[in-house]
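Subject: sequence -> structure tokens, single chain

Hey, anyone have a minute? Need the predicted structure for the following. Not urgent.
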Amino acid sequence: GAGLSSSAAIEVVTAITLVSLGNSTFGINKPVDMVEMALITQKAENNYVGVNCGIMDQFASAMGKANHAILLNCRDLSYKHVPLNLKGCRIVIANTNKKRGLGESKYNERRSQCEQAYEILKKFIPEATCLGEISMESFNKFKHEIKDEVIRKRAWHVIAENERVLKSIEALENNDLERFGKYMIESHNSLRDLYEVTGAELDALVEEALKIDGVIGS
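Reply:
Had a minute. Here:
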């Protein structure tokens, strides 16, 4: 709770330290595999901390590159660095001051709900191996098969968010920050209304930020 994905950052730097010390002690002269470090530290989070998290935070800590965003496929860990040209804009990190820890948050519950949605949808879209492989078009065709409205909303968010990510990459590659900002706003609204994980404090920060001249996304 001390920063942005602070647990992942501590896990990654600890893993790198231990491997580096081991390599030095035993005279091993090979570079540290940073993707492997991300995977090992995710395993620590899953099996020791007890949070059934994905790979994003650990991968960002291990593989981040200055002035770039990362497009990551969490299924096979294929990735690319996408230039982030801010052109005079700034990324501002704001703190809601709401205490939060993934261990006691709704993370595991949301993951379970998404898995339930996938189990229903794969009967109608058998070629998809996860929600991330289902298009918005296919989802709209079969979403009525998910009878539980809450489960349906969770899947809707994930599928729409994946499409937003791909559109966002296109916007960044075209240096279209205003379009990118619109996707950020859409993302927040979806997290608030469909995934229900934002909370009053974060909603208030976004609402107030968007009243300020020059803010293109929040």
